[in-house]
Automatic annotation (TrEMBL):
InterPro entries: Hydantoinase_B (IPR003692), Oxoprolinase-like (IPR045079). It comes from Streptosporangium amethystogenes subsp. fukuiense. Residues 13-536 form the Hydantoinase B/oxoprolinase domain. This is Hydantoinase B/oxoprolinase family protein. It comes from the Bacteria.
Amino acid sequence: MRRTTAESTSAADPVLVEIVEGTLASVEMEVETAIARTARSPMIRDAHDFRAGIHDVRLRKLTGRSYSALVQPIVRDFPIAEMKPGDVFFHNDVYLSEGGIGHLPDLCVTVPVFHGGEVVAFVQAFGHHDDIGGGVPGSMPSNARSVFEEGLMVPPIKLWDEGVPNRAALTIMTRNSRMPDSLAGDLDAECSACLMGARRLGELFDRYGREAVEACFDAIISNTTETFRRELLAKIPEGTHVWEDYAEHDGVDSPRLHTQRMTLTVDHSAPVPLVIDFTGTSPQAKGPINHAGDYADGVFLKKWLAPILRNLADTPERMAELDVNEGVVPLIEMRFPQKGTLLTPIFPAPTNARTFVILRLLGVLAGVLAKATGGRMPADQETIRYTGVYGDGLDGTPYLMREVLGGGSGGRWYADGEDTIHVVPDSRNIPVEFAESRWPFRVERLGLARDSGGPGLYRGGLGYDKHLRMLRDASFMSIADRSILSCWGVNGGRAGKPFVVEIDGREMEGLVDDSPVRAGEIIRVRTTGGGGWGSPLDRDPALVAADVRDGKVSPDGARDDYGVILSGSQDDPQVDTEATGIRRAELRALVADAPFFDRGPGFPSLSGGLPYAEVDLV
């Protein structure tokens, strides 16, 4: 008879818990390292847009460094008792993934772990692959009206059967891809890495026994639950708090406010202390910005949003120590609106640009917590967007270059935001040397986008400024939000600069599939800056001068945004203290009645002229 969770937790050897937890983290890292070293596509191998996860036989996520999809759809369609060593399961079907897959290019492989002839855990990897068919290269058509335009849908299948690959299924998938060699190589890398990870975990069970290891699993998850409840949730005042944010376009209709609304109810005495209600979220979009999040009681979204709670930790160092595993799930209840909204789309609604919704939800939770806690949350960030070019290479063969560039993170109550970060763990831009040797363009600039970070007591992080000069005619693509709206500032902080792409001075929309770019023309990509935290008029003038010296803020920005008047050269700017005091007094009079959130100058253009939303007041 299996022990209950409470019995298992109390019975777990605390030293063994540390050993097991370290082994899980090591195996997860080893799986990801193996994939990165053996994959074929730039998106997986170089940009690192993938992740691994380890789950127990009860489908609970055990690891917290990275994040992964769900095992639920696999065990739904394939009974655990019938699984065999060497089996590898595969799926990418958004609507049959129980909310774990957001769009079709995210391909997921799952491998069961065996001990004593029984399944005891699962190793999983999923990543964003180059192409799985559909209307445009990259499988992310910006004006898709149904999921059928977005690529090949594969419900859960057995891709390897007791170590033997299903060649028919692999042939079908590669035949539907414009990049068949990369797809085949990536899948082989992911399957092999997960099988290796399953062997490593099997050795852990062999060494310590199933009962002891599973007791450690219970302890790891229980420790997370209690740590979050005691250290983080206790800092949120009881009551009901409401906020909302918006996506700005869907690729089909004209730009407008697509609302994601969150009502957070906090009751520390309740068994489930946090209730997140998405009532008030806009109807599903015609275009591909929908996210199917209302499956499996929203368990994927619970783990997706929970990292925001770590900002409530006492110190940044403590925040970095806190992992997010299945232990956060019992603390959160999610209530979804009826079917047919941005978060509850009805099949076959398109979803390839669902980042517009799930990334915004991170900011909505941060915003509602900022209202609840008097601003003890970072300002907004938009740290993922896809840009790229495709056409015929110098040898005449087709190519696709797509990059997932990051942006600046929001200023925090204790520090500036970080420059050019990415929401995917360990991700990176594609190295210039690699890009220029493989594709027909030159990278003429890759640096920080000056003045992009939102002004504040703590400045928002800066985005990228990247210039590509095309050597052959090609087509440009972009899947990006925050090209009208900005990353919001909070508690007196100002919004960052929005996303901008220009091709020889011609400004592009955020959602573009096939804009022509000629040989010799320059594509300039400027990604978003994070929002600022606190009033920029309270920032130390010496720090503003240092930002000007470092090229992060221009002299005009220092004067207009921070009220700091400088003299001397840019290499050695000097603060004019008297003029700065006069200038700051003038600016303070202009912002005396500013709302708690600053959404930037793009908001009135979509709100019918309103300078801010009603929920922006505290």
